[in-house]
Design goal:
six-stranded mixed beta sheet, Metallo-beta-lactamase, Chain A, binds zinc ion, globular, 13 helices, DNA recombination, Rossmann fold, about 30% helix, single chain
Length: about 400
């Protein structure tokens, strides 16, 4: 989950993935790396709409896919006229609307996280900055790295370090996880399957692979279906006809999927089982209840490979592993040859923030529309999940014990 405040230290007139009052006070140019809700904080608030309506020079830049998604999602479509497209691999010069003498060159790259997700490279008088957004690049996918490396050396790397923890050294590649899922489904000719996803987008590879393999459409709700009007190659794998299929990824779960085999697509649960080694990305939890390790974020090894290739002077994490301490974090960075001063300090409350936000989401919305792709679903059903989360939050609210 993104915990970055959005403001680039080097270029505070630019905010990325955060649209709160603090951002509006200093930034006039905004970027959206992708459409998971932890990267859209404040964008749906009336205060931001008012700010942008009263300041017509303000711009919000995003990929074409993100603009399409945002322009049809109820919470964000009122800002349609303000989303400006930036294309990948194409440098743009962007002026500071408050001072035309200040400009920056921005180039974006795909980040391998979800449709339309971008990495952003900024080049200007205060140094070269790369913002990865959420990213998943396998260690052998070095093409994108090479493109970035052909640019100037990176002064600051703002990077998704969600799994920057040696115990999460490797995560199954998504193709491998999907293959495992296909093998599993193949064993049950007559059973119904319910795939529990935890974000709006990011599971397209699963949908299209299942459709290609089985020739069976996947049931989703109408909003989800029309999200893919822009991506017909994904949409052709989906259906809004609940009765016509035994593969369901609908939300809320339709009555046709009631006695199905439930498979939760997520990764966080696996990373929390620290002592356990899993031989397969798909594991059984109980009768008709399974989990598939499907990560949209890079593993520890993948993050390390990326950092070594980029070799930045400074690192600024935009997301951190659960409960990592600043000293541990800085020690791990040193092992990668990055000995920055001042060392990074952050409050080790990242995990608490995540759980609290997730709980508020469930409380307020009771749907998965506002979740991002890190799933806290630890129980058999929504009610259990809420209880689990509530328990964890209650514990968090106790005063901290002194060590
Ligand atoms: Zn994301
Ligand atoms: Zn369904």
């Amino acid at each position: 989950m993104c915990t970055f405040n959005g403001i680039l230290k080097e270029y505070p007139w630019i905010s990325i993935d955060s649209f709160l009052t603090t951002n509006c006070q200093v930034s006039q140019v905004f970027f959206i790396s992708h459409i998971h809700t932890d990267h859209l904080r404040g964008l749906d608030e009336p205060i931001f709409a008012e700010y942008i309506t009263n300041n017509r020079s303000i711009r919000i830049y995003c990929s074409e896919a993100s603009r399409h998604f945002l322009s049809i999602l109820p919470a964000y479509k009122h800002l349609s006229q303000f989303y400006s497209i930036i294309n990948v691999d194409q440098p743009y010069t962007i002026e500071n609307p408050m001072d035309k003498n200040i400009a920056i060159t921005v180039t974006c790259f795909g980040s391998g996280h979800c449709p339309g997700s971008l990495m952003l490279l900024f080049e200007g008088s205060h140094g070269t900055v790369l913002y990865t957004g959420d990213f998943r690049l396998y260690s052998h996918q070095s093409n994108r790295h090479r493109i970035i490396l052909s640019k100037k050396p990176i002064d600051t790397l703002y990077i998704d370090m969600t799994f920057f923890e040696p115990s999460i050294r490797q995560l199954p590649e998504r193709e491998q996880a999907c293959q495992e899922l296909i093998h599993f489904i193949e064993q049950y000719d007559n059973r119904y399957f319910y795939l529990k996803t935890s974000a709006r987008v990011g599971y397209e590879y699963i949908y299209t692979s299942l459709y290609q393999h089985f020739g069976i459409l996947i049931h989703v709700n109408s909003e989800q279906y029309h999200l893919y009007d822009y991506l017909p190659q994904v949409q052709q794998a989906l259906t809004i006809d609940a009765h016509g299929t035994r593969l369901h990824a609908c939300w809320p779960k339709c009555s046709c999927a009631k006695s199905s085999i439930k498979i939760v697509l997520s990764v966080l649960w696996f990373t929390l089982q620290q002592q356990q080694q899993f031989n397969s990305p798909l594991i059984q939890i109980s009768t008709d209840y399974y989990r598939l390790c499907y990560s949209l974020h890079s593993s520890y090894n993948e993050i390390c490979t990326f950092i070594k290739q980029i070799s930045p002077t400074h690192i600024h994490p935009i997301a951190l592993p659960n409960q990592i301490t600043p000293s541990r974090f800085n020690e791990l960075l040193k092992q990668l040859g990055i000995d920055q001063f001042p060392t990074i300090y952050f409050s080790p409350s990242n995990f608490e923030q995540q759980i609290k936000r997730r709980y508020q989401t469930i409380e307020n919305n009771n749907s998965n529309d506002d979740n991002d792709e890190l799933d806290f679903d630890c129980g058999q059903n929504q009610e259990n999940n809420e209880k689990q989360l509530y328990k964890r939050i209650s514990n968090l609210q106790q005063p901290p014990t002194k060590k």
